[in-house]
């Protein structure tokens, strides 16, 4: 597995991956289909080096978006190709994102997570800090 920064010419590929992964979550499918604008990866995030890609045998397997907000790193997105779930790609992306954030001097990693992903993020070292509301319903605010 190769971890690297996303390239701007991959924007459409990354958004397509995000769409496929997001639509696999049954509880969000109808809302996502009704709100097509929810699947977007701003080009500026790629240009600023905020998008980390996992590549396997030349294929993009997943990506993570890490934004800086007031000295804190926020995992703003984590998407893995559905046919590659449960192979360690997501946890590898999270570990690298945490490492990169700490290397940049950021003190904490936070994520607003789908409650169905709670166990995954806990295995990655996150703990629940409270609740959050998203455009798709209730979520968990977690930190590491």
Write structural notes for this entry.
- With 144 residues, this protein is an alpha+beta fold.
- The chain has five helices and seven strands.
- The chain has a single domain, classed as Gcn5-related N-acetyltransferase (GNAT) (Aminopeptidase).
- It has helices at 11-23, 26-34, 43-47, 89-103, 118-123, and strands spanning 2-5, 51-56, 59-69, 72-80, 109-113, 127-134, 137-143.
- Strands 1-2-3-4-5-7-6 form a seven-stranded mixed beta sheet.
- It starts with a strand and ends with a strand.
- The mean pLDDT is 92.
- Strand percent estimate: 25-35%
The main pleated sheet reads as: 7 strands, mixed
- Structural class of the helices, strands and pairings? alpha+beta
**What is the domain tally?**
1
Topology of helices and strands:
Layout lengths: L1 E4 L5 H13 L2 H9 L8 H5 L3 E6 L2 E11 L2 E9 L8 H15 L5 E5 L4 H6 L3 E8 L2 E7 L1
Parallel strand pairs: 4-5
Antiparallel strand pairs: 1-2, 2-3, 3-4, 5-7, 6-7
